Amino acid sequence: MTGESDELGARLKVYEGQPAAVSGMGKDPVNLPMIRHWCEAMGDTNPAYEGPEAIAPPTMLQAWTMGGLSGHVGRTGAYDELLTLLDEAGCTSIVATDCEQEYLKPLRPGDRVAFDTVIESVSERKTTKLGTGYFVTTRTDVRVGDDLVGTHRFRVLKYAPSRKRPAKKARRPRPVVNRDNAGFWEGVAEGRLLVQRCADCGTLRHPWLPGCNACGSLDWDTVESSGEGTVYSYVVMHHPPFPAFDPPYAVGLIELAEGVRMVSNVVGVPYDKVRIGLPVRVEFRRHEDEDGALTLPVFRVVDVLDGEA
After folding, report:
1. pTM of the model
2. Which of 8, 152, 193, 211 could, after both became Cys, cross-link 140 (CB 3.0–4.6 A)?
3. 212 has which bridge partners?
């Protein structure tokens, strides 16, 4: 992975345009139970996803093509060969970087999806904070019968982990503050958890948006949350490590007493004791570094499990 020439990059470029899956078939037809599970997990109550005329949420496009642990019939060896070349060159780590989806037609319960996947592009060698490697993009065209219903592009970085150690504690990344959410962060700095409220229909919303997702009104005010809530869902972060953080740690989707949900750290119990349904209360933590002071809301468990603090 060192030196000026990039012989590996030239070998990888050969795989551009090669198929990664041909005539793959979704393991299950589009179905209402999966749609229901998805909507419950996302908190999406759109009526278009219910009843006899239901359609599938467009963002489920990839879900209908996933092969699970046993994989798919139709998978070719080209993608595995490309990844093996990268492994042999020391690019043994992988992280998903982004995906792009295009929706052309709605999917409905009973539809059987077929798909073809191609290795669309392999980048030149790139050096990132994680390490040096290559971005690999695949494109999956999803069809029902002869109709193209959507396209899914998925990009990963396959890299050799950097062995450099930071000389000093890394600075904590700052939230992106813009004109739409500045009021929220101003409230946090004052130790207040503010929730946007539509001035027309009264619907509460988070994250902060310029308009109401219920009625479309652009007028709004705020209410101050009590800070009480429960863990609606959570993940435990192990990888990738980031110098400003100390994994493993729990990140929760918190349902506030007012009914909206927000993402933040869950503290007060060990990461492996976090559970769905735990009662929590907001706590404002102040961080100091070279960039100045930063206050962030986290959620502390208010009832300790099994006597552990």
Report:
1. 0.56
2. 152
3. none
**End-to-end CA, the chain:** 46
CA atoms within 13 A on the CB side of 26: 23
The predicted-structure confidence for 36-67, as pLDDT tens digits, reads as follows 999 998 888 999 999 999 999 999 999 999 98
Q: Rounded distance, CA 236 to CA 250, Å? A: 4
Q: What angle do CA 144, 145, 147 make, to 5 degrees?
A: 65
Q: How far apart are CA 245 and CA 267, in angstroms?
A: 14
Please classify residue 86 by burial: count the beta carbons closer than 10 Å to its beta carbon, then call 0-12 exposed, 13-18 middle and 19+ buried.
Answer: buried
Counted residue by residue, the chain has a size of: 309
Q: How far apart are CA 118 and CA 138, in angstroms?
A: 6
Could you give the 3-state DSSP secondary structure of residue 82? helix
Furthest C-alpha separation in the chain: 62
d(CA 30, CA 149): 13
Distance, CA of 293 to CA of 282 (rounded, Å): 19
Beta strands 249-256 and 279-289: pairing type?
unpaired
Q: Which of 161, 99, 156, 153 is nearest to 127 (CA)?
A: 161
- Separation between Cα atoms, residue 222 and residue 204, nearest integer Å: 9
Can you list the domains of the chain with their CATH numbers?
7-161 (3.10.129.10), 182-307 (no CATH)
